Amino acid sequence: MSPTYKKMFEARQTFKPVRRYGQPDGRKPSREKSEYWKNSQRTTENDEDEERLRLCYEELETVKRNHSQNEQKMFADESMIPPGPLKRDYDAMRQDPTWYLRKELIEDCFGRGCCCARGCDCCRNRASAYYKRGVGHCTTDCGCCASERGFEYTAGEKQQIVEQFDKMLRSRNPSYIVKMAEAYFVKPLEQKVLEQVQKKKVQKKRVWWKQLL
Asked: Where does the source fall among the domains of life (predicted)?
């Protein structure tokens, strides 16, 4: 063995690792190291925040696009309503931004277990929303309802709800579709007219009771 290799071999045999090698020695890191790790952690948190913000902007853009498409579709559907008393009542009702807060539609929202079934006033507050067109009661995408339930509907569950709703509208029993048609297309009676109608009903009942006696 050459002298050079002999020295290397001896040096390797006499090497001993430092005590507690690879373990923390309890000493505080230097100020430079502390600042470095803080900055690294702060950079990571900022990157995560930026990623979440980017996803939120993407979701917001998707919602705006869907809303614009729904507005166009709603305009096309409303334009197909033939002129006449039905069209006049339909347009007159929507002059009031709170038109959808009529008894029949509130009861429908209440029955579906949505915001009208609670005291959150979400449906009422939508009357002052930025987007006025198409404002109404809760749908399957209502965030408040999802928060109350504790979960969001899956795509399959939403489809089932739509199919159930379509089944109710197409049922041979016309109760639901008549109720919804009146709520969306028939202008509610004014208070004076309503009082007169109720008064006539009371008078008819009195006459009926007199006839029985």
From this structure: Eukaryota
Q: Taking the complete model, does pTM exceed 0.85, yes or no?
A: no
The pLDDT tens digits for 6-45 are 555 455 555 455 455 445 555 555 666 666 666 666 666 7
In the chain, domain spans: 96-201
DSSP string, the chain: --HHHHHHHHHHHT--PPTTTTS--SPPPPHHHHHHHHHHHHHHHHHHHHHHHHHHHHHHHHHHHHHHHHHHHHHHHHHTSPSSHHHHHHHHHTTSTTTT-SHHHHHHHHHTTSGGGTT--HHHHGGG-S--TT--S--TT-HHHHHHHTSPPPHHHHHHHHHHHHHHHHSSSTHHHHHHHHHHHSPPPPHHHHHHHHHHHHHHHHHHHHHH-
